[in-house]
TrEMBL record:
ATP binds at residues 137-138, 164, 234. Mg(2+) 5 binds at residue 235. Catalyzes the ATP-dependent phosphorylation of thiamine-monophosphate (TMP) to form thiamine-pyrophosphate (TPP), the active form of vitamin B1. Reaction mechanism of ThiL seems to utilize a direct, inline transfer of the gamma-phosphate of ATP to TMP rather than a phosphorylated enzyme intermediate. It comes from Magnetofaba australis IT-1. This is Thiamine-monophosphate kinase.
Amino acid sequence: MGGIRLSNESNKTIAALGEFGLINTLFAPLQGSGDDNLKVGQGDDAAVLQIPRTQQLTVTTDMLMEGVHFSSDADPFLLGQKTVRVNLSDMAAMGANPHWCLLSLALPASTKLSWAEEFARGVKEALALYDVSLIGGDTTASKGCIAINMQMMGLLGQDRAQLRSAAQPGDRVFVSGTIGDSALGLAQRLGQLKIASADDRAYLMRRHQLPEPRVPLGLALQDSAVINACIDVSDGLAADLKHICQASGVSARIDLERVPLSEAARNAVNASADLESLLITGGEDYELLFTVATGAVELLARITADLDISITEIGEILPQGEESRVEVVKHGEPFTLGKSGWTHF
């Protein structure tokens, strides 16, 4: 899709458009059309949605803060994409079909208009992946850094949400895609890691900047009701599996050797075995991590056979014991993690 270009003046700021000029020019066109369930969209005090009687509304929100989630020199187009994609990942984990979103921005008045244009272009392209409509939001001036918040809404069948809280002892633990690419990409960007191959560097950076929301997988799992518990991997595989364990009152064991890695990640680990812990604690993989009863594993294989995404069995759910825990083993021996996963405080 083409982007909206207002000016070629590199020093022009968003102050030249003003708040409502910015909204009307860059973000109002992202509402889309032809949605019978959207009764009132942008331009009023609130949006109004008609929820079909057989479905439930699913709501998620994610905030991205300059200096925490992205650097001041981050590519605004990729940042716009990622803003949408991380919310889509939450929809996928719940098994919901994404439909609408709200976007709120806090921007310094000195923000370049070209930055806002590229950010809006990234949002537009990511929303188009699943025909999501931007139905409102808010803008405000910031005295410091840029802050971005998106709230996304989707629909799913009555009482069909895929929750963290339904894992059972004996369940098998599966994860989609590959793990650790984003953490390696970020470490590379921060100068904490040297990757020899140019192709590997490019691949890992792309995985960090453009996570792939597993919406088709989430919808297929929800439609079949084959899984017991599900979460998207944002804080790190080990930490997010522990979230499932704590919510379900169970524990888990995973085999580090079975965690799926990309060729680029495998090359990095072969060069430095110390990276193994980072792979499952670094976070921002945005893959789906889920549990399946042993008797349903064959059905899972049939359901996912036609999807263009791999799934890998990496462990099992155990009785809780004294407290919920995640055991990581390598070659059958306990493996100690350097940290448990991402946390803000």
